[in-house]
Write a structure and sequence with these properties.
Elements: H1 3-25, H2 29-41, E1 50-52, H3 55-81, H4 86-108, E2 111-114, E3 118-122, E4 130-133, E5 137-147, E6 150-160, E7 165-169, H5 172-176, H6 178-186, E8 192-196
Parallel strand pairs: 5-8
Antiparallel strand pairs: 1-2, 2-3, 3-4, 5-6, 6-7
Helix pairs in contact: 1-3, 2-3, 3-4
Length: 202
């Protein structure tokens, strides 16, 4: 076996290890990576009292990490089976990484945050950040759901003047910030009503 072939074969265990790490990390890495990235890029804005990403961000991030693990695993298989063609392997790997990196970027770039001025929101495929002034809110409801005789907060629904409804899943952070939400709404004459899932508005 030539030295060049031996060096190529030596990479295979390393690539397999990287693929396994990426695969297993897909379960928890998005929570760490997305939080750190958003801390660095977005939470430098002053006056934020709630910053959240939808759960779909973490799911997409997890799928992206798993996909990257499959790409590296595929490279390991190709490396062990095909001689030479180093340039083809390099180009193929780079092209294979692009979709995963795009979805990691999209997962980091999906968020919303509340300030005293209003709500800033960026959806999954949005290019520009949207801003909703608290003055645009006409109705507000804290929606609860009933499961197995247990009632728990489900989502915050804010109806804006256009008739569109902004919906935010209740997380620990949103529960902690509900008094801030209530205060900014009351300052604008909007009552935060309590509503049970499936219950008709009065």
């Amino acid at each position: 076996m030539s030295k060049k072939k031996k060096r190529s074969q030596d990479l295979v265990p390393i690539l397999i290890a990287i693929a396994i790490v990426l695969g297993f990390s897909s379960f928890f890495a998005p929570f760490v990576f997305i939080t750190i990235a958003q801390d660095f890029f977005y939470q430098q804005v002053t006056g934020i009292w709630l910053f959240q990403s939808p759960i779909s961000s973490y799911i997409i991030g997890g799928v992206a990490f798993l996909y990257l693990g499959l790409v590296v695993g595929g490279l390991a298989y190709y490396q062990s089976r095909v001689r030479g063609k180093k340039r083809l392997k390099t180009v193929g790997t780079l092209l294979g990484f692009i979709p995963g990196l795009i979805f990691i970027y999209l997962s980091v770039n999906q968020y919303y945050y509340f300030t005293n001025e209003g709500i800033y929101q960026n959806d999954l495929f949005s290019i520009d950040e949207k801003f909703y002034d608290w003055d645009e809110i006409e109705q507000a409801a804290a929606v609860s759901e009933k499961k197995d005789k247990q009632v728990s907060l489900s989502r915050l629904e804010l109806t804006i003047k256009s008739g569109d409804i902004l919906s935010y899943r209740y997380s620990r952070e949103l529960v902690k910030s509900q008094y801030n939400v209530r205060d900014v709404l009351e300052d604008r004459g909007v009552e935060l009503k309590q509503k049970l899932e499936g219950e008709e508005e009065e």
